[in-house]
Design brief:
The chain is mainly beta and 259 residues long. The protein has one helix and 16 strands.
């Protein structure tokens, strides 16, 4: 196997520098949905704002245009405005903001006079030591599954969210993990894939995000919904005024490997 290290951190998690994440949410009356993330990978960052539709309606969330969106770096006491994309309504893009580990970021959104806020502090970066593969038998078939390997820092509460791309195509799942049972240990975490296969010469890319507890809770519920046969619940939001979604600050490491 040939290992390829990605140094530019061009792919970020949780709507950092990518815009193609859709989260299905239950809602009866229409609600505001805000999704956004600041990372250590450099701007642009995106804040996505939509409105929900009834659960039995077509799964298309109309974008919210004309909002005022700002992010305060509380550590440096600097305010950054996010400008709405002229191409994609409902997407608001940063300018000159560079996320930094240890800094606290506060989101301010104003929509028709209603204000929504959220706060997140970017955790220390926990880097991957590498990617490997394991073989697992699923429904009488042997599959090759990726495994992320890393050293969890001791005596610190850590929360992680992983995402996976195969040949630059995102696998439609997130993997949330905390260190409740692995504090200070070397971790080998398998990323389960129930609807895809790793084939010879595939390029597998893993994005590992160190996140705060609020973002972990959000993606942990999202992950649980994906594996549940019951009625899915909305993930817990850290945004005020009844908005759905999340706003977070995460430190991100990205690596790729060819199988």
């Amino acid at each position: 196997m040939k290992t390829i290290f990605t140094s530019g951190l061009l792919i970020t998690l949780l709507v950092g520098c990518t815009k193609n994440i859709d989260v299905q949410l239950r809602s009866a009356p229409s609600q505001i949905v805000i999704q956004g993330n600041i990372t250590n990978g450099g701007d642009p960052y995106y804040i996505r704002i939509n409105r929900t539709v009834p659960f039995d309606a077509e799964n298309t969330y109309p974008p919210v245009s004309g909002a005022s969106v700002y992010v305060l770096d509380s550590t440096d006491n600097k305010v950054y405005r996010f400008f709405e994309s002229v191409i994609d309504q409902g997407f608001y893009m940063s300018a000159y903001l560079v996320g930094q580990i240890g800094h606290t970021y506060k989101l301010y959104v104003n929509i028709d006079g209603e204000e929504y806020t959220a706060t997140s502090t970017m955790p220390d970066l926990v880097p991957m030591k590498g990617i490997s593969f394991t073989q697992t038998k699923i429904l009488e078939e042997t599959r090759n599954l990726p495994q992320v390997n890393f050293q969890d820092p001791a005596n610190v509460k850590n929360y992680y969210v992983f995402s996976l791309l195969v040949n630059d195509v995102p696998y439609q799942a997130f993997y949330a993990l905390d260190d409740r049972l692995s504090d200070g240990n070397f971790v080998r975490h398998q990323l389960y894939m129930d609807s895809a296969y790793i084939q010879k010469e595939d390029i597998v890319k893993i994005v590992m995000a160190s996140v705060d507890r609020n973002i972990y809770n959000y993606f942990n519920v999202l992950q649980s919904n994906g594996g549940s046969s019951g009625t899915p619940a909305n993930p817990p939001s850290n945004i005020s005024n009844g908005a759905l979604g999340y706003f977070g600050a995460s430190s991100v490491d990205v690596k790729s490997i060819q199988f």
